[in-house]
Design brief:
Keywords: Membrane, Transmembrane, Transmembrane helix. This is Sporulation protein YjcZ. This protein has 2 helices and no strands. With 34 residues, it is mainly α.
Length: 34
């Protein structure tokens, strides 16, 4: 898991990016989800 620690910054950025994409998908889907 040393490589994970080495890329901690990238991991955090990727995590935020994934959350942002999910948020965009939910917003675009609108009330269709509910």
């Amino acid at each position: 898991m040393s490589e994970v620690v080495g890329y901690g910054g990238m991991g955090a950025a990727a995590f935020v990016l994934v959350l942002f994409i999910l948020l965009v998908i939910i917003l675009r889907a609108g009330t269709g989800i509910y």
